[in-house]
Amino acid sequence: MSKVAEGNAIIGQSGGPTAVINQSLVGVVEGLKGFKPIKRILGMRHGVDGLIKGLPTIDLTEVPQAHLEKVAKTPSAALGSSRAKPTEADCVKIFEQIRKNDIRYFFYIGGNDSSDTCRIVHEMSQRAGYDLRCLHVPKTVDNDLMYNDHTPGYGSAARYVAMAFMADDRDNFSLPGIKINVIMGRNAGFLTAASALARHHEDCGPHLIYLPEVPFEIDRFVEEVKGVIGKLNRCQIAVSEGVKDKDGTEIGAKLIQGAQTDAHGNVQLSGSGALGDMLANLIKERIKSPSGKPPRVRADTLGYMQRCWPEPSPVDAAEARGVGCKAAQEAMSGTTDGSIAIIRKSNHPYRVEKHVVRLMDVAAKTRHMPAEFISGTHDVSHDFIDYCKPLVGELPQMERL
Q1: What is the pTM of this model?
Q2: Domain spanning 156-307+371-392: which superfamily?
Q3: Which end of the chain has less neighbouring CB within 10 Å, N or C?
C-alpha cells in the first residue's frame, strides 16, 4: 500500500471482446467517481495500441449514468480492443502518453496476455520512479486465468454454447446424422465442456466432448463416433478448437494454411473451419452406412458469436461489474498493482468473493480444466456440471413428443 496520488485515471480493454466486458468498464468508472484525487477518467481507444499510436482518449468523467447503463448492457468492447504486446520501443511511447495525460491510475480489462501487458506497464513505471497504480480487471471466455474460480465473460459464453447445443441437438434429432461443433477455448476446455449443460435427457447431445486437456487420437475418435451411431443412429460432437495430438501439437494450427498469429504468438484458430472440415471428411472416409454410402455429416465452427451474444448470464453481468468496482476500490485504497480474482466460497448457496492477486501470478499463464472435471476420453464429470451451472443462469427446457 502507498499514499494515493492526484492525477487522471485511464481504462483500456484488451483481447477478445465478451458479452459483459463493458460491465467491467462501467464498474471501474462507477468505482472511481467522487474520488477526489482523480481529476479525469479517460478511456483508451483500442487499448495500449491506441496509446502507442497516440490516438485521442475519450473522457468518461461526465458521461451520464443512464448512458453508462446502456453501454454496460452492450456486448463487445465499447472502447475498442487490442492484442498488442508492447515492445521496449512501444513502452517508451506508452509512458510518454501516461506522463502527457498525467495518468496515475491504469486499469486494463482483459485475459492472461492483457495481465502481462499490465505487468509490463507497472514495471516500466517502477523503473522510471513514476507513481502509477496498475490494476488488471479479469476478462476471458476461455476461463483460463490462474487463481480465478472463473472469469467474467465465461458464464455468458458458456450459456451461449449450452443453448446452441440444445437447439442443434433437436435439429440433429429431426434429421439424424453426425454433427460436429467446434468451440473456442484454445488451451483450456472450459467453454467446450459447457456444451454438456445442454443434456436434459439421457439421449441428448453432445454425445462426445473433446477437450484440449485430453490427447486427441484419430482412430479412437472414429471408433467412439461409430459407437454412438450404432446406439442412437445419430451423433452430436463438441470439439475444442485447441485439441492436441499426443505430442501436444494443436491439430487445428497444423491444418490452417498461412495461419495468422497475434503479437503474443497465438495462432488464430477461431476464424477457420479447417478442424471441423477435417473431422467431417475423416468420418466420411472411415464410416459407411449399410448401403456403403458415407453418413450425413455436417460441421460448424461456432466462432465469434460465442463471446458477444447479447443475452448474457445475469450472474456473469453482475460479477463483471463487480470486478471493475473492486479494482477501482483497491486503487483508491492505495494498492499499487495486482489482478482481481473471483474466488468461490460455496456452491449451495452459490457465493463468491473478490480478492487481489499478484500480477506475476496471473500474467501470461494458463489455467486448464482440472482432472476432476474430466471423465474418460470424451466427456465431463458431474463435478464440472455442478461448477458450471450457477454461472450460466436458467436455461430453457427443450420438450419432446
Answers
A1: 0.93
A2: Phosphofructokinase domain (3.40.50.460)
A3: C
